[in-house]
Amino acid sequence: MLLPDTRGKVDSFGTTRSEYKKKRQRPLQLARQLARQLAHDPKNIEAWFLSLCQLLHEFGISEGDMYNYDESGFMVDYGRSQWIVTKAPDRQSYLASSQNRETVTVGETISGDGEALPPLVVLPGQLHLEGWINNELDDDVLMAVSDSGYTNDEISLAWFEHFDKFSAKRQTGAWRLLLLDGHGPHATKDFLDYGDDHKILLYYLPPHATHFLQPLDVVVFQPYKHWHAEAVDAATRTGCTNFNKVEFLAALQSIRLQTLQKSTVLSAWRQTGLIPWNPNLVIDRLQAYAATQPRTPSPPQETPPQTVVETHSTTRALRSLAMQLVDDNQLDLNNATIRRFLKGSLKQAEAGNLALDYLSRTQAAEKAREQRHAAVNRSQVLEYLGIPYAQPPVGSLRFAAPAQYAGKGRFIASNYSAICPETPSKPVAYPGATPQEQRIVAAFGSQLSRPQSEDCLTLNVWTKPTAKAKKGDKPVLVFFYGGRWSIGGTDTPFYNGQYLADAEDVVVVTVNFRINIFGWPGAPGVSKNIGLLDQRLAVEWVRDNIKGFGGDASKIVIFGQSSGSVAVDFWSYAYADDPIVSGYISHSGNVFSFPTNTEALAEQHWYNASAMLGCGTSGDVLPCMRSKNFSDIKAAAAKVKPPVATSQARSQPAFQPTIDNVNIFSVDEYASRSLAGNFSSLPYMFGNNDNEAGYYKIAAYAQGVVLPDAAWDA
């Protein structure tokens, strides 16, 4: 009820009518403003997109199984103003219109592949009338009535069953996803239970965000209103002065046909960044909008962080102090000025608490975002690049087994590290080479001019937040690159793990390890297979840390290509009793694929390189070799004459794995161990490529070797 408009009469009314109590209204403006600010915060919207991405991939939702449902109210006969041509511009001009102000609710459902399901129409009333159904509407339209013309719990549940019936007819996957607002009838227990029982995921839009996140709101309902207004105006011009519910229903089929065209529906998904997946489209708009809004000055950086947790006690302390002063007769609460001061102080404290709480959450979100890096082409995949797993192998650690990384503090894993020192393959003018072939070979042969450094013992991780990730239950794939032990690195398009992590629910890891003379030095008294030790330490790092990326340390599989594939097979024999991993995959290589050095041959090559650097041809030359610039060492190693190749089609490097009977065995020993079952008995997948010899034809041509096809097929 409305009370008289003077304070005195309000006070009087309250004292004369004891059943009523006077209460001051609280303004909603601040609460609504804060809610809208939260809804427009790009970080919150990014989190919403990320959660949606998890659901889509976890449940395998296709575009055709993704839906948006929303309702819109239509004032039945409300058209729009029109432009007219008149001789009397000063006269008011009116268009005939009825006085019918009834509201009809229409609920529409659109799919991610551009289709519209039969709608819900809610009419104001208590009973269905025959005239309402004598129209051109399809029989599949769900008609309902309510006193207000709006939906309620019962109608919403009936619609949900209606949606289930028609979406199931076109379902392709096991689950469907329904995007809708959090309106009360959409979140009842019966509604939620029905979704669970029929494998329909409900994903709610954030409050105050439907105008930029909901496809129907952003694109579809605007032309819908336009065509409704056109229908009202057309009817009015033909003399209809009572555009009622019957008229509305008669026009609805035409309105829908003109509105729900496939191009319009697809545009709705596209402009909300949902299909194709492009969250940045929305987030960039929000950031641009935020940049135009006035900002509250940030608090000084020196503000102690504990202030955030002390604010609640500050509010309580103010109240307690006020009551103590009253008890001591030092404060008169009958004084209006005192009361206003106390109220203002308490409100300031509460407002400060709200602001500081919001600030703390914002800072936490910013810190979390800094520590993750969305992959460029698969933004739902998080990539962590250049993570060190070992100390930089310089100084006394050059030509030595790797030492576990001992760094402390925060590490921003946003960029690849340098690749390990190598001498890239030279470009080959192969007959008939296309530009595409040249780009592929350049990436495959380490001709992309990546920076090189001995501080290269790093790994990269790609993972996608899913239900398995939250449980730390994802399988883990750890990759070793090929390159004939001489070239290679993880910073190449061939080994970017974002695509595999996006396609499969796995964590992907790629590992940098030492190659060339730095990985297979041949120096007496130290390991001659340091590159393999790098790989082992990297996998130990994965075992100890991968849970933080959603991976399961008991589900690690190592895989590799070419010489990286051979390294995987080496592992299966070298660590038969302690493999760490649970499986192997080898692409184009096993322990019998490439020759290895004997210890004598490895040491001969080592001293040849040391002699070129002035470090001597015998004895302990390690201190001298460790004092040299890595570029000079690399250049000397490239001049060492390699052993005679075992195949015309394939040369071999001077610095490569060496038989040490610990990590590497002879061919005969591998055969004996294989027959005796002396290897880690784990699942193993071997494979090769079609046209396996294709790349080697290019390398052979570079050496002046041209063989007939029969030789390559042998």
Helix-strand makeup class:
alpha/beta
* Count of domain modules: 3
Oligomer: single chain
CATH homologous superfamily of the largest domain, by name? Alpha/Beta hydrolase fold, catalytic domain
Parts with pLDDT < 50 across at least 5 consecutive residues: 1-10, 24-31, 94-100, 296-312, 364-371
Q: Can you describe what's shown?
A:
- The protein has about 725 residues and is of the alpha/beta class.
- It has three domains: about 60-80 and about 95-290, Ribonuclease H-like superfamily/Ribonuclease H (Nucleotidyltransferase, domain 5, 2-Layer Sandwich), CATH 3.30.420; about 305-370; about 385-714, 3-Layer(aba) Sandwich (Rossmann fold), CATH 3.40.50.1820.
- The chain is about 40% helix and about 10% strand.
- The protein has 25 helices and 13 strands.
- It has helices spanning about 5-15, 30-40, 40-60, 130-135, 155-170, 190-195, 210-215, 215-235, 245-260, 260-270, 280-290, 305-325, 335-370, 435-445, 465-470, 500-505, 515-520, 530-545, 565-575, 600-610, 620-625, 630-640, 665-675, 695-700, 710-714, and strands at about 65-75, 105-110, 115-125, 140-145, 175-180, 200-205, 380-390, 460-465, 475-480, 505-510, 550-560, 585, 685.
- A seven-stranded mixed β-sheet has the order 7-8-10-9-11-12-13. It has a six-stranded mixed β-sheet with strand order 4-3-2-1-5-6, with helices on both faces.
- Strand 5, helix 6 (about 190-195) and strand 6 form a beta-alpha-beta unit.
- Helix 5 runs parallel beside helix 6, helix 8 (about 215-235) packs antiparallel against helix 10 and helix 12 (about 305-325) packs antiparallel against helix 13 (about 335-370).
- The longest helix has about 35 residues, at about 335-370.
- The protein is elongated, with a radius of gyration of 36 Å.
